[in-house]
């Protein structure tokens, strides 16, 4: 490792037990490759099987003296791991308050407890600041739009991450955010990372104007998609995605940096080769992403944002609209169908128990089948009833939610609704404060002013009003 220089790699290892094919062989190949690599820090996601981690830990012990697997969640934990040549000063895990639903157990996001693993590394030299590495794997999308897209979940997760990033930057850490963020460039979470969090995309810094747009990526050769566009997911060159369309190839794995303390020197997509025969498959369903960074000398001056008030207002308005849509459409839908399922289950269980009496007189074995059906209906009904009662139902109708900037009037008795409303209140408060600072509004003023089309400040006033109304 050169003085002031850091080589970093991030990889989603696809370590799903029983589901990911050739998991054991792939994870062992990855471990062997890392053990002979020259990276200073490796951030892994989806390391969910203890056996795989123990092998990685053993093989990389000499190359990476400092290692950590973050354990949490209900089943296997978030699957986040760090391998480092740099001494680890401290580390902790932040679990996202909103992260899928328990009823979607077949998707696994809620069960593993998606999180951010924050690792504080010692300074490379006495002249450089300590490094704060944030490794995360955000909620996956299961559709391009609608409820199954989980776009609001990722937006809330990105908002929380941006707050952590700003706190660490203000404490004069060199902040690096890595991982499979399940968000395309230009998406709302991406804008929250770069505008609200103030981070820069290391790939875009290096590529600049030559970085292709999404429309151009769709027309590229698959090889150029990797070399020129940094595509890490859904590439046809990946053996796990051979039938993907060219426009589906995308960049989901990032190294986002505080450009005031870190400078990228080179970046490339890695682990694109296949495992040797007889397996001959890609190492994961994602390619890895590697970056060489220079850590600048310590600067205790205040960090400043290069984004205009118009950009901030636009971002807050988009975030507000995303969360408001979720509260208006998804929460009532989730609450209603679970409520109906719960009460219909009660009626069906009663009806089945009455029917068992008559069915047993005709065919004795039919009472056994009816008893099993009654049990399944009762169990599923109770589970959905609990989710409705403690997960998505609120104390008052959605139309009566009163959300203030200081959060004092938030009313909710559940996890999902409370987390979403908390994020919405934070967005509104941030928008109002930004508007005050940019326009030097009297601190005593707490209500957003309506805009006047004839006013010279109508654009900013309109943006502020739309963001916090």
Automatic annotation (TrEMBL):
Give the matching SUPFAM superfamilies: DNase I-like (SSF56219)
Please provide, in alphabetical order, the Gene Ontology terms of the cellular component aspect for this entry. Answer: membrane
Tell me the GO molecular function terms: metal ion binding; sphingomyelin phosphodiesterase activity
Annotated region Disordered: the residues are 442-469
What keywords does the record list, in alphabetical order?
Answer: Hydrolase, Lipid metabolism, Magnesium, Membrane, Metal-binding, Sphingolipid metabolism, Transmembrane, Transmembrane helix
- Tell me the pathway: Sphingolipid metabolism; Lipid metabolism; sphingolipid metabolism
Question: Ranges for the Endonuclease/exonuclease/phosphatase domain?
Answer: 9-286
- UniProt subcellular location: Membrane
Task: Name the residues that span the membrane.
Answer: 340-359, 365-390
What biological process terms from GO does the record include?
sphingolipid metabolic process
How is this protein named in the record?
Endonuclease/exonuclease/phosphatase domain-containing protein
Q: What organism is the protein native to?
A: Candidozyma duobushaemuli
């Amino acid at each position: 490792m050169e003085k002031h220089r850091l080589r970093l790699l991030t990889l989603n290892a696809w370590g799903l037990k029983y589901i990911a094919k050739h998991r054991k062989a792939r994870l062992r190949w990855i471990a062997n490759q890392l053990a002979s690599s020259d990276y200073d820090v490796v951030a892994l996601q989806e390391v969910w099987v203890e056996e795989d981690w123990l092998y990685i830990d053993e093989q990389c012990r000499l190359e990476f003296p400092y290692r950590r697997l973050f354990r949490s969640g209900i089943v296997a934990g978030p699957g986040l791991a760090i391998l480092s040549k740099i001494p680890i000063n401290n580390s902790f895990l932040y679990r996202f308050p909103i992260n899928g639903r328990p009823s979607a157990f077949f998707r696994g996001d809620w069960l593993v407890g998606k999180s951010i693993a924050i690792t504080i590394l010692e300074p490379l030299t006495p002249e450089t600041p300590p490094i704060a590495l944030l490794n995360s794997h955000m909620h996956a999308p299961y559709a391009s739009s609608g409820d199954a897209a989980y776009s609001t979940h990722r937006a809330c997760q990105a908002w929380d991450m941006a707050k952590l990033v700003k706190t660490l930057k203000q404490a004069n850490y060199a902040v690096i955010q890595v991982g499979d963020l399940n968000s395309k460039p230009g998406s709302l979470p991406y804008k929250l990372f770069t505008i609200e969090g103030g981070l820069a995309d290391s790939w875009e810094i290096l590529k600049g104007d030559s970085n292709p747009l999404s429309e151009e990526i769709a027309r590229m050769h698959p090889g150029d998609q990797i070399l020129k566009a940094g595509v890490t997911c859904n590439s046809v060159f990946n053996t796990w995605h051979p039938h993907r369309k060219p426009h589906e190839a995308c960049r989901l794995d990032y190294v986002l940096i505080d450009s005031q303390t870190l400078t990228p020197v080179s970046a490339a997509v890695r682990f694109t080769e296949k495992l040797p025969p007889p397996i001959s498959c890609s190492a994961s369903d994602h390619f890895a992403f590697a970056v060489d960074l220079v850590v600048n000398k310590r600067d205790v001056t205040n960090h400043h944002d290069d984004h205009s008030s118009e950009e901030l207002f636009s971002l807050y308005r988009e975030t507000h609209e995303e969360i408001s849509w979720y509260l208006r459409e998804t929460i009532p839908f989730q609450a209603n169908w679970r409520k109906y399922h719960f009460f219909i289950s009660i009626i069906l269980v009663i009806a089945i128990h009455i029917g068992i009496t008559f069915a047993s007189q005709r065919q004795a074995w039919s009472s056994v089948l009816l008893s099993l059906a009654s049990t399944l209906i009762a169990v599923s009904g109770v589970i959905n009833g609990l989710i409705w009662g403690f997960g998505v139902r609120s104390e008052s109708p959605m139309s009566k939610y009163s959300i203030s900037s200081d959060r004092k009037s938030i009313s909710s008795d559940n996890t999902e609704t409370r987390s979403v409303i908390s994020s919405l209140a934070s967005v509104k408060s941030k928008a109002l404060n930004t508007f005050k600072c940019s326009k030097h509004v009297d601190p005593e003023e707490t209500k957003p002013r309506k805009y006047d089309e004839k006013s010279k400040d109508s654009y900013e006033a309109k943006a502020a009003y739309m963001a916090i109304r």
